[in-house]
Design a protein that fits this description.
single chain, two-stranded parallel ribbon, 8 helices, about 15% strand
């Protein structure tokens, strides 16, 4: 077991999963990988099981019985990682929208520069998004401005999902009290870290839209984020976070 664990939640990612796992294991810094699969009907978990014999003690699989949302998948993975005493715990998508090579930069931001939360940011140095339609770029960009206005956080990319957490930060956040499961989950995690005065830094990345598989974005996820930010602020005012 190494000190760093990359958590990758999956649902119908059979087209990407083998390549993304191999890409992580080819990096110069050693990372373990945990796949949290929500019973994908396309056989994602079966592919991972076959690969485990190739990467013993580095590749792990937690298969859940139903699709239960991104947030609950990550909380499941965080608890799994904390129980095994990993020091650095990462969120990353399976579809190569996050470049695995950037794991190194996030790791160094925490392990060398002392951050407790390192955010792979699309907007810290301009707008670094490839292959998204303009409407989605604008929605994402202005969502982060909206979050800043409501919460007071200085984070440029509040909905980012490519992150390194020190285990100490996850313990401060109290992950088992996380309420949201979609887009708003990423905002809630950062806001809880902000409230707990965790040292957060943004590391510039280039985000590239998936070329294989289907996006999991929906109107319900967007609505959760819009109203969820207000709910977070209200709960903070009443000391209910």
């Amino acid at each position: 077991m190494h000190s760093s664990l990359v958590i990758i939640p999956t649902y119908n990612e059979s087209e990407n999963i083998q390549d993304i796992i191999r890409a992580v294991f080819l990096l110069e810094e050693p990372f373990d990988v945990l796949i949290v699969d929500d019973n994908s009907p396309d056989g994602t978990s079966e592919i991972v099981k076959r690969m485990q014999s190739e990467f013993p003690e580095r590749l792990y699989l937690e298969k859940r019985m139903q699709k239960a949302g991104l947030g609950t998948a990550y909380v499941h993975g965080f608890n799994w990682a904390l129980a095994r005493q990993y020091d650095y715990i990462f969120e990353m998508d399976a579809d190569f929208s996050h470049n695995p090579a950037d794991l190194i930069h996030l790791y160094k931001a925490c392990s060398i520069d002392g951050a407790e939360v390192a955010i792979g940011s699309r907007y810290i140095s301009g707008v670094n998004v490839v292959n998204w339609p303009l409407s989605r770029v604008l929605m994402s960009y202005f969502a982060s401005i909206y979050v800043k206005m409501i919460t007071g956080m200085k984070v440029h990319d509040a909905t980012a999902g490519f992150i390194c957490y020190r285990s100490s930060a996850l313990k401060k956040i109290n992950i088992n009290r996380i309420k949201f499961i979609g887009y708003a989950f990423q905002i809630e995690m950062k806001y809880r870290a902000y409230v707990q005065k965790c040292k957060m830094v943004e590391v510039p990345i280039i985000f590239t839209d998936r070329t294989k598989g289907q996006s999991k974005m929906s109107n319900a996820i967007i609505q959760e984020a819009v109203w969820g930010v207000i709910a977070l602020r209200i709960r903070k005012l009443f000391n209910q976070l």
